[in-house]
Amino acid sequence: MKKNLQMTLKSQSDRYILRGMEMLIAKDRKLKSDFLIYLGEADYRKLYAKEGYSSLFRWLTEKYGFSESSALKRIQVSRLALKFPFLYRDIASGKYTLSALGRLAPFVNGANAPVLFGAAEKKSVRQVEEFLVTQFPKEEVEDRLRKSVSPLGEDRHQVQFTANSEFVSDLEEARTLLSHKPQG
C-alpha cells in the first residue's frame, strides 16, 4: 500500500506534494489534540487500572507501545490541557507543540500561565528551555527538566552536559553541515 503511494507521488507536481503535506500536518495536529482529550478522560476514569496497569504511563508504554518520552510528554500535556482547555485548540492549530508544552508543564500555575504560554507560542523546545531559565532559578529548571542518564544499547550511552550558547551554535552549525554530507 505504501509503495503504491510512493509511486503515485513520483508523478505528481511539487505543488500537489506540498498541499498534501500541509493537509497531513493539519490532520496530525488535530489527531494529537483529539488524542489528548481521550487520554485525559481515560486518566480521569483510571481506565489503565481497570485494564490491570499500575499507571497511565505503564498503560501507554506497555499496552500501546509508546516510547517512555512520548508517553510522559502526552501525559503531562493532557493533564495541563485539562486545566487550560484552550490548549486543545492551540495544539490543533499548530500554535504549540507537545514537546514545548511538555517542557513548560512542570512550571505552569494559574498566576504565571499567560506569561509562560505567551513565551512558548510557536517556539522550539530549546527556545522554551532558554526562556524558562530566565524566569526561574537555573537549578530549579535543571531539576524539573532533568533527564535520566542511561545506556541506549550495548555500545551507546546518552551523555548530558551543560554548554554555553556559543557551543550550542557551533553544534547546530556542525549538524547542518553534516546533514548535507553525501551518503556513501
Account of the 3D structure:
It contains 11 helices and no strands. The longest helix is centred in the first third of the chain and has 32 residues, at 14-45. The mean pLDDT is 87. The protein is mainly α.
Oligomer: single chain
Helix content: 55-70%
Q: In angstroms, what is the radius of gyration?
A: 20 Å
Total helix count? 11
Please report which band the strand proportion falls in: under 5%, 5-15%, 15-25%, 25-35%, 35-45% or over 45%.
under 5%
Structural class: mainly alpha
Biggest sheet overview: none
The count of strands amounts to 0
Spatial gap, N to C terminus: 29 Å
Mean pLDDT score: 87
Catalogue the unreliable spans: none
- Sequence of secondary-structure elements: HHHHHHHHHHH
Using the alpha-carbon principal axes, give the shape. Answer: globular
